[in-house]
Design a protein that fits this description.
This protein is mostly helical. Helices cover 40% and strands 9% of the residues.
Length: 67
């Protein structure tokens, strides 16, 4: 079983979202992430648990409507 730390790019690809979305989730939705030096790293299992608990759910309070 692979148990390595994933980068922002890798976790964004895994979740099917943009890197900007990942950074927003870290800052506004408490996405489980660990800063190592200047880089954010993720454990896939922690992110999976966070998503399953509704951490990534849209609540429209953090999003601006497109115009």
């Amino acid at each position: 079983m692979e148990d390595r730390w994933l980068s922002v790019e890798e976790i964004a690809q895994y979740l099917g979202v943009s890197k900007d979305t990942v950074y927003t989730w870290i800052n506004k939705k408490k996405m489980p992430a660990h800063k190592i030096g200047r880089l954010w790293k993720f454990k896939k299992e922690q992110v999976d648990t966070w998503v399953e608990a509704g951490g990534a759910a849209s609540d429209n309070t953090d999003e601006k409507p497109d115009k």
